[in-house]
Specification:
The complex is a heterodimer of chains A (110) and B (143). Chain A is mainly alpha-helical. The termini of chain A are far apart. The relative contact order of chain A is 0.19. Chain A is built from four helices and no strands. In chain A, α1 (4-30) packs parallel to α3 (55-83). Chain B has a domain at 4-91. Helix content of chain B is 64%, strand content 0%. Chain B is flat. Classes of the chains: A mainly alpha (110), B mainly alpha (143).
């Protein structure tokens, strides 16, 4: 009997909380097209967690990755929330490479 | 190779996803939200207890994450009701509690204002409902 699972649950909760500003700021500065970058970064972080030997550290890295992947699926709705005035709207977004290509793809939403 | 991070990542992703969908469905269809909130809290605590007594580290991790997510979902059911009041989520006209909210809060609406694609500019409250994607059968009824 040990509290490892509960500790991990609480840490996960705190990391997911960081997903809120990640999505809000990500969309504000780069537009929802940043979803491709956010999702790719997420999968790379999860992949990296496989090579972390310390259990609790591997979990933290994995959950950070999951937060990025989940965040990528929230960006499209966040863009609409900003357009509706529920969040500050930024018209001058920074265009990352391949933005024009990504615009043609359907953004994920769960 | 340590798969514990992968287990945590998959558990976190799936529990957020399922919780995200379930909270919306349950809040929209229950008359008294205190009941599902209580159920989520009890399930969350039971899950955390199971995480405490199990010896398998992967299972401990998954149950720990699931339990905390359930506890948070209880609070999210309450937050969802506030979204309904603000019109940030659609009210269900067949739910008496939502009917009451629709009568009391001028901001509440049965429309899902997020059900569309972004258009890249700010939208006025008058324009917002016109941009919503309508279901195919609704469109065919109109034409």
């Amino acid at each position: 009997m040990n509290t490892f699972g509960i500790f991990i649950g609480i840490i996960t909760f705190l990391i997911i909380g960081l997903g809120f500003p990640l999505v809000i700021r990500g969309e504000r500065y780069f537009g929802y097209w940043v979803w491709v970058y956010m999702m790719s970064i997420g999968f790379l972080i999860i992949l990296a967690s496989l090579f972390v030997q310390t259990d609790w550290l591997s979990v933290i890295v994995g959950v950070i990755g999951a937060t990025f992947v989940w965040g990528s699926t929230e960006l499209k709705e966040q863009a609409i929330r900003a357009e509706l005035g529920w969040f500050p709207f930024n018209a001058n977004k920074i265009k990352l490479p391949f933005t024009e290509v990504i615009k043609k793809w359907k953004a994920p939403h769960l | 190779m340590n798969t514990l991070g992968l287990v945590a990542a998959i558990t976190a992703f799936l529990t957020i996803w399922i919780g995200h969908v379930a909270v919306r469905k349950i809040e929209a269809n229950t008359r008294v939200i205190a009941i599902p909130m209580l159920v989520a809290i009890v399930l969350g605590l039971i899950t955390e207890y199971c995480s405490l007594i199990t010896d398998n580290r992967s299972l401990k991790t998954a149950l720990g994450i699931l339990g905390i997510t359930l506890l948070w979902d209880a609070f999210e059911i309450y937050r969802q009701q506030n979204r309904i009041k603000h019109g940030h989520a659609p009210a269900n006209p067949n739910n008496p509690r939502h009917v009451k909210i629709l009568a009391e809060y001028s901001t509440a609406t049965t429309l899902n204002l997020l059900k569309r694609d972004p258009i890249g500019r700010q939208v006025s409250p008058e324009e917002a409902p016109k941009l919503i994607h309508h279901e195919e059968h609704e469109v065919s009824q109109r034409s």
